[in-house]
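Your task
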Amino acid sequence: MEQLEMRKLVYYVAVTLDGRIAGPDGEYDFFPSGDERQSAAYSTWTNTLFPETVPTAYRAAVGLADAPNRHFDTVVMGLGAYRPALDAGITSPYAHLRQYVVSSTLKPDTDPAVTVVPGDPLALVRELKREGGAGLDVWLCGGGRLAGALLPEIDELMIKNYPVVAGAGIPAFDGAFDPTVFDVAERTAFPNGVTLTHLTRR
């Protein structure tokens, strides 16, 4: 019997030049996107490539209301990544995906479409990766502590590097010292100064 290929865990995230995915208080509105034309072209390109990473509330506005998932059918996030939606009164930010929030403090009944995982994110991801299905992968959308804990299981990185130095904030990875080598598979540069780098685990 042919063995199904395991699903991959892919960390798709925006990062500053000094390796921050957000400011000290979780802010991300300082990431520069260029002028209006550059910003529109960049957003159209990334939204077309990764439509499932656009929050459900904004999909209709950018023409993705009925867009099928291309790469992911599941999202895993820490409380910090979930918090902006929660603070805005949105308890199911990615309703078009299966949603898991790793948190020891979030109430398990926050939303029936969101599974709260109080501990052991490695066990969760290993279980998700063993699933069969339509060949779609698992999206890790942050934050830094969760990415640090899941580093042993991260198969690919999709890093959007923005031309800005934050100076302080939440690092892309916040965990134990564990040098892990990834190979650059592809890199795309945009006129607004952003580069999207696809890396695979060596």
